[in-house]
């Protein structure tokens, strides 16, 4: 041992770096699982593309690492503090902290203290003295991250099932299939709404649950909701014809009932038009119900100035709601199609 | 030989002396290893100890054994209510000179020994107890205006019986504070008792041999004060002593409830000195926190003055000190 003072200072410095690293890793043992949990919950609460998922994960991990490392970088312990930590860790009976204080002293007892401490510290390996250890609440954090992962997977799966059309990818086609009797119910305004633009009411109610103001300011949606509920009531009360049975009579009833309800509300003939577009009125199956809806809407939509104003206001709000992602992703297409259908 | 080697050799000699004294005392005084350690540390620190325990536990034997093993002049004062200060310090007596004249000559009292055993000190009157004060603190005696320095080493070991307090004069706080340690002698366990019986009731009487000479002891006394202590350890001692005061804000509830007065700075001096001695005994040249823990109870337990509630609820100062130590992470 040539220079005891140098040995002490070098060892303390190495141990200090190691302690900071260990402390950062310990913090990361908490922050990274927390970041994973938060990122998954965030991503699970909305539809995100794979690219967005990667970005969210990257941001979360980056934040976690930064939070873990920052205290170690900002708060560098002093030599005395590090020496005390070394003593406590290695049970050196305050040798290091005393020696650090006596480094510049020249009396024999101080030199003996320094020499004694240096002889102990020369055998110390920072990596061995300060091994990486799991933080105290590491298991809880890990369990939380695993729970969040499970939740994320479940949410993604549920959304995938709910977002997929009931019979194929085209909702309009499924609506048409329903009208053709495959679903065993007479075509109704509600079914049309559920299939082609059904969920104008549902989307409206869901959108309005996020933005109460939107619920108040979309009269078309309100009317549609009323129509839908009435139509559903009628549909439930109506007989269930065979799949291949002619369905013109019940369809006509439904259309007539819907028209009767719609009359005087600024949307006269809407139910009839949608029912006709779905093929319910004529009893024939429209091979392309979406086109039918559009065609019917274009040809039969009221072109009054008041309606156009109403439509403009409502469609603008709907567009805004879609743009701001206030509507569930699976309903946005329906809302768009609904507004296409009722275009003046 | 460099000065470092000299100090190292002195430290080794100190350890050897300490161990040999302990062995010699152990020949006649069975068990109580910690008590013997504390007594020896107190002696090497040139402190005075108050030894408390029921009769018959070997308190006097312990002190006598130390003086025999260290080749020290030993004096015993059996304190009684009629003991006068002059009986302790000595007095001027009129003597005939060879020339046929008479003159006053100072006749030294028992206080001029290296080790003074004040047996049952609480039976002496306060006036006589006070006679010990100057000797214990100033290490000198003033009689008829003349000051007489005491020998080095000098330690007063006073004993008192805690169970028979009638007709006694409890030591005042000021005098208690002058004792470096207060040591309690507990009843030995069965194994130690059997050993005591074997040694004292047989035909072979064990005697203490001289383990070290007086000059060697004297040369070792300054070494203890050279032992170094880090600021952190010093702060630990000071916070410990301060924590015994009920008036500080962060005092423990037990301290606030049961303690009337806390320990004085003299207690911190005693703790640090004794910790230095223990560091040397342990082969170190610096004080560690565990040395402080080792000496805190004997250094503090007689310096804490309990209040009425503490005495009524039979709280001991030792339990308070241990609680303070535990609160500081040194249980």
Describe this structure in words.
- The complex is a heterodimer of chains A (344) and B (331).
- Chain A is mainly alpha-helical and 344 residues long.
- Chain A has 2 domains: 4-163, no CATH class; 171-341, no CATH class.
- Chain A has helices at 4-44, 50-74, 79-90, 95-101, 108-121, 126-129, 138-163, 171-179, 189-195, 199-210, 212-216, 219-237, 248-262, 270-277, 289-300, 305-323, 329-341.
- In chain A, helix 3 runs antiparallel to helix 4.
- Chain A is rod-shaped and about 105 Å long.
- Chain A starts with a helix and ends with a helix.
- Chain B has 331 residues and is of the alpha/beta class.
- Chain B starts with a helix and ends with a helix.
- Chain B has 14 helices and 11 strands.
- In chain B, the strands form 4 sheets. A 5-stranded parallel beta sheet of chain B has the order 2-5-8-1-9. Chain B has a two-stranded antiparallel sheet with strand order 3-4.
- The A-B interface holds A 80, 84, 93-95, 97-99, 101-102, 105, 107-113, 115-116 and B 2-4, 6-8, 11, 226-233, 282, 284-290.
C-alpha end-to-end distance of chain B: 42 Å
State the total count of DSSP E strands of chain B: 11
- The arrangement of helices and strands of chain B along the chain is HHEHEHEEEHEEEHEHHHHEHHEHH
Q: Could you give the count of β-strands of chain A?
A: 0
Distance between the termini of chain A: 95 Å
Strand content of chain B: 15-25%
């Amino acid at each position: 041992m040539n220079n005891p003072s140098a040995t002490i200072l070098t060892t303390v410095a190495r141990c200090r770096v190691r302690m900071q690293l260990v402390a950062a890793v310990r913090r990361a043992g908490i922050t990274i699982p927390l970041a994973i949990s938060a990122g998954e919950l965030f991503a699970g609460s909305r539809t995100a593309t794979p690219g967005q998922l990667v970005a969210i994960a990257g941001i979360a991990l980056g934040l976690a690492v930064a939070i873990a490392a920052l205290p170690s970088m900002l708060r560098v312990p002093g030599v005395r503090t590090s020496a005390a930590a070394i003593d406590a860790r290695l049970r050196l009976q305050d040798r290091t902290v005393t020696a650090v204080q006596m480094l510049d002293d020249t009396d024999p007892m101080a030199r003996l203290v320094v020499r004694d401490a240096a002889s102990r510290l020369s055998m110390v390996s920072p990596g061995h003295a300060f091994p990486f250890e799991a933080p105290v609440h590491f298991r809880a954090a890990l369990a939380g991250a695993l729970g969040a992962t499970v939740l994320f997977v479940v949410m993604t799966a549920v959304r995938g099932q709910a977002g997929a059309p009931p019979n194929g990818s085209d909702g309009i086609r499924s609506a048409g299939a329903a009208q053709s009797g495959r679903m065993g119910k007479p075509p109704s305004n509600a079914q049309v709404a559920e299939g082609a633009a059904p969920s104008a009411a549902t989307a409206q109610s869901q959108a309005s649950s996020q933005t109460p103001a939107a619920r108040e300011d979309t009269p078309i949606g309100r009317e549609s909701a009323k129509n839908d509920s009435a139509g559903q009531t009628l549909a439930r009360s109506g007989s269930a014809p065979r799949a291949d049975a002619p369905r013109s009579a019940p369809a006509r009833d439904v259309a007539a009932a819907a028209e009767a309800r719609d009359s005087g509300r600024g949307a006269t003939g809407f139910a009839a038009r949608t029912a006709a577009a779905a093929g319910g009125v004529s009893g024939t199956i429209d091979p392309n119900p979406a086109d039918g809806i559009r065609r019917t809407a274009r040809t039969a939509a009221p072109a009054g100035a008041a309606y156009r104003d109403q439509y403009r206001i409502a469609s603008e709000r709907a567009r805004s709601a879609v743009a701001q992602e206030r509507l569930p992703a699976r309903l946005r297409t329906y809302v768009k199609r609904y507004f296409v259908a009722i275009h003046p | 030989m460099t000065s470092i080697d000299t100090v190292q050799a002195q430290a080794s000699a100190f350890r050897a002396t300490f161990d040999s004294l302990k062995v010699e005392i152990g020949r006649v005084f069975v068990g109580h290893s910690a008590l013997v350690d504390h007594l020896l540390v107190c002696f090497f620190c040139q402190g005075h100890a108050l030894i408390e325990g029921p009769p018959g536990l070997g308190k006097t034997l312990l002190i006598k054994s130390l003086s025999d093993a260290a080749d020290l002049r030993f004096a015993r004062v059996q304190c009684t209510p009629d003991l006068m200060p002059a009986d302790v310090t000595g007095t001027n007596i009129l003597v005939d000179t060879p020339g046929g004249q008479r003159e006053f000559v100072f006749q030294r009292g028992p206080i001029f020994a290296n080790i003074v055993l004040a047996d049952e000190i609480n039976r002496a009157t306060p006036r006589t107890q006070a006679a010990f004060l100057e000797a214990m603190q100033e290490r000198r005696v003033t009689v008829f205006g003349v000051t007489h320095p005491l020998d080095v080493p000098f330690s007063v070991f006073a004993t008192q019986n805690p169970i028979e307090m009638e007709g006694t004069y409890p030591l005042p706080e000021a005098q208690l504070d002058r004792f470096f340690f207060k040591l309690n002698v507990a009843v030995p366990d069965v194994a130690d008792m059997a050993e005591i019986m074997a040694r004292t009731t047989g035909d072979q009487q064990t005697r203490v041999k001289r383990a070290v000479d007086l000059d060697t002891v004297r040369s070792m006394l300054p070494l203890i004060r050279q032992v170094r202590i880090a600021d952190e350890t010093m702060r630990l001692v000071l916070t410990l002593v301060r924590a015994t005061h009920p008036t500080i804000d962060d005092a423990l509830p037990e301290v606030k409830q049961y303690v009337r007065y806390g320990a004085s700075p003299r207690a911190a001096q005693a703790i640090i000195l004794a910790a230095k001695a223990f560091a040397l005994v342990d082969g170190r040249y610096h004080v560690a926190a565990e040395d402080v823990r080792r000496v805190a109870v004997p250094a503090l337990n007689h310096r804490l003055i309990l209040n009425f509630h503490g005495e009524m609820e039979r709280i001991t100062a030792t339990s308070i000190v241990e609680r303070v130590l535990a609160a500081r992470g040194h249980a």
